[in-house]
Write a structure and sequence with these properties.
This protein is mostly helical and about 180 residues long. The protein is built from 6 helices and 3 strands. About 50% of the residues lie in helices and about 10% in strands. It has a 3-stranded antiparallel beta sheet with strand order 1-2-3.
Length: about 180
């Protein structure tokens, strides 16, 4: 069975990074550290296999016109794995699925976006940001023992926090369906 095609393509993203003068050094480092992986799918990358795939997923509200254009469970895993963003699954009145709110700190301000209100180019950019973040963290993880320990601690914290939020959302869905 052929894998579904989505707008975010990891190998196209890698090619774009190689062509970008500001990103070229990072992608070369990554390719040198993981020569057997860089040409494979995102789900075969060390940071995904060893970290991001540990996040279970839940269905959430997405833009109706984009629902078949992106791998939404993967986006949630990337968001859960991110050190630069936080998230919350919020249940609104009369909605079966939770809203996925993304929180990003910019200086002393916090920007909040609902995934269901994003445009396609914004969703695509989230994939790029979170993927590049994980690649950079994996480089640090593999190159520097001190960074490895700090990254490992932060990863454990994120896994616990992600599991807690997903479990709470699943419980709310069960309660809501029971009450209907």
């Amino acid at each position: 069975m052929e894998k579904q095609r989505f707008l975010f393509n990891f190998q196209m993203f890698i090619s774009e990074l190689k062509e970008n003068p500001d990103k070229k050094e990072m992608i070369e480092k990554y390719a040198n550290l993981f020569p057997e992986r860089v040409d494979k799918e995102l789900e075969e990358q060390p940071w995904y296999e060893g970290y991001a795939k540990q996040f279970q997923t839940i269905e959430y509200k997405v833009p109706e016109e984009l629902k078949n254009d992106f791998d939404w469970p993967l986006l949630l895993q990337l968001l859960c794995a991110s050190f630069s963003s936080d998230f919350e699954l919020i249940f609104m009145e009369e909605q079966k699925l939770p809203e996925l709110s993304i929180y990003v700190r910019q200086g002393d301000q916090v920007v909040v976006k609902q995934v269901s209100e994003l445009w396609g180019f914004q969703v695509l950019r989230l994939y790029e940001i979170y993927t590049e973040e994980q690649m950079n963290l994996q480089i640090l993880f593999d190159e520097d023992k001190n960074e490895r320990d700090a990254i490992q601690l932060q990863r454990k914290t994120r896994i616990l926090k992600g599991k807690k939020q997903i479990n709470e959302a699943e419980a709310t869905i069960k309660i809501n369906s029971f009450l209907e």
